[in-house]
Design goal:
This protein has 130 residues and is of the alpha+beta class. The protein is 36% helix and 24% strand. A hairpin with a 2-residue loop joins strand 3 (72-77) and strand 4 (80-85). The two termini are 23 Å apart. The model has no long low-confidence stretch (mean pLDDT 88).
């Protein structure tokens, strides 16, 4: 999602939380080796941080880095969520993506949402450089 859209949504009162893998962490390094794509995941984490870091100063937007194992990439808006599964030996672009909708409490949607919240709680806030 583009920075302008995220900034607009935050200005409208939406909470925007962006969690990016710490490119220097052991878990991201291991995921890079498992992808068999050289430094692909580390590079993508660095690029994502470069792109989203300026938003850290925007009210309503929080950007954090985490050192947890990268099992999935999660993209959520309200009661819809895209889950990009990380498959051993496969780059994310070639891995399955599931579109989940919250239909009931305690289902798959909530499992992934709670997983994100747990990672978020361990993540380090990013400061805008400048």
């Amino acid at each position: 999602m583009g920075s302008a859209v995220l900034t607009e949504r935050a200005a409208q009162g939406c909470t925007v939380r962006i969690a990016i893998g710490d490119a220097d962490s052991d878990n991201v390094q291991a995921r890079g080796q498992e992808e068999r794509f050289g430094h692909g995941i580390e590079s993508r984490c660095r690029l994502a941080l470069m792109h989203y870091r300026p938003l850290a100063a925007t009210p309503g937007i929080e950007v954090r880095t985490h050192e947890t194992t990268l099992y999935n990439s999660l993209y959520r808006a309200d009661d819809q969520q895209l889950v990009n599964a990380h498959v051993w030996g496969v780059n994310a672009y070639a891995a399955p993506v599931w579109h989940l909708r919250r239909h009931e409490t305690g289902g798959m949607f909530d499992t992934y949402a709670e997983s994100f919240d747990a990672v978020w709680a361990t993540a380090t806030p990013v400061r805008e450089e400048g």
